[in-house]
Specification:
It is a single chain. This protein has two domains: 93 residues, Elongation Factor Tu (Ef-tu), domain 3 (Beta Barrel), CATH 2.40.30.10; 115 residues, Rossmann fold (3-Layer(aba) Sandwich). Helices cover 20% and strands 30% of the residues. α3 links the parallel β8 and β9. The chain is α/β, with parallel strands linked by helices. The radius of gyration is 18 Å and the shape is globular. The structure holds flavin-adenine dinucleotide. Flavin-adenine dinucleotide (FAD) binds next to β4, β5 and α1.
Length: 222
Amino acid sequence: MASHIVKVLESKFITHDVKKIRVERPKEYSFIPGQGTEVAINLPEWKSQLRPFTFTNPLDARYLEFMIKIYRDHNGVTNKIGGINAGDELIIHDVFGTIEYKGKGTFIAAGTGITPFIAIFRALYDNNKLRGNRLIYVNKTSEDIIMGQELFMMFKKDFVNVLTRENTIGYIGKRIDRNFLIENIVDFNQQFYVCGPESFVSDINKNLLELGAEPEFLVFEQ
Ligand SMILES: Cc1cc2nc3c(=O)[nH]c(=O)nc-3n(C[C@H](O)[C@H](O)[C@H](O)COP(=O)(O)OP(=O)(O)OC[C@H]3O[C@@H](n4cnc5c(N)ncnc54)[C@H](O)[C@@H]3O)c2cc1C
């Protein structure tokens, strides 16, 4: 497995618990939007602890970017990444991932499950090809939304913003269940992209299939 030590160029919180980290991009290191790599912190006691994260940078950027949710409740890798600053080093590995764009459809994301889609949306938007896609994005509260302004700007009326623990005007406040899907999706004979916690992905996929979606039109991380 190839590995690259990369310097952190920028490190800042973009929500109360999500950090945007930009690192140097190794020469000829390329990826398909939706893919990620395993990341470790280049410190003796941390370099063998690899965790998967997804690239969110534009394809032609000179840097690589990650959006990383920091779990402060235990001493894991993300907690340590919470204290990483510009000039520190990470180790990145081979590119992997099964999520990629396969044509216009509906993207359904929960929390940091938005990260593989951000790279896809940015690539489509830059090429004027985002129109015709829809986004359903679920979070607990408005404070948890990652890149909300950019997503609103890109999707406009095709952005369904769901908050499960808030009833704010302009947002839909409930869980995504079978009824929600029926109310919000007119045609199930289309491409779907699903990303989020494992239970979210399996629940949504199960409901989509029962409502008529075709298995070959379901894209998710396997
Ligand atoms: C393909 C893929 C791509 C991903 N891309 C991204 C991404 O772009 N951005 C992103 O933010 N995440 C992403 N993730 C999730 C990310 O990899 C995990 O959040 C990360 O590995 C957590 O690492 P950790 O060492 O901090 O926590 P781990 O120790 O690995 O724990 C993970 C989970 O268990 C809980 N947990 C474990 N031990 C304890 C404990 N002792 N006390 C309390 N809670 C505990 C944590 O709260 C957390 O929910 C991706 C995952 C996959 C599979």
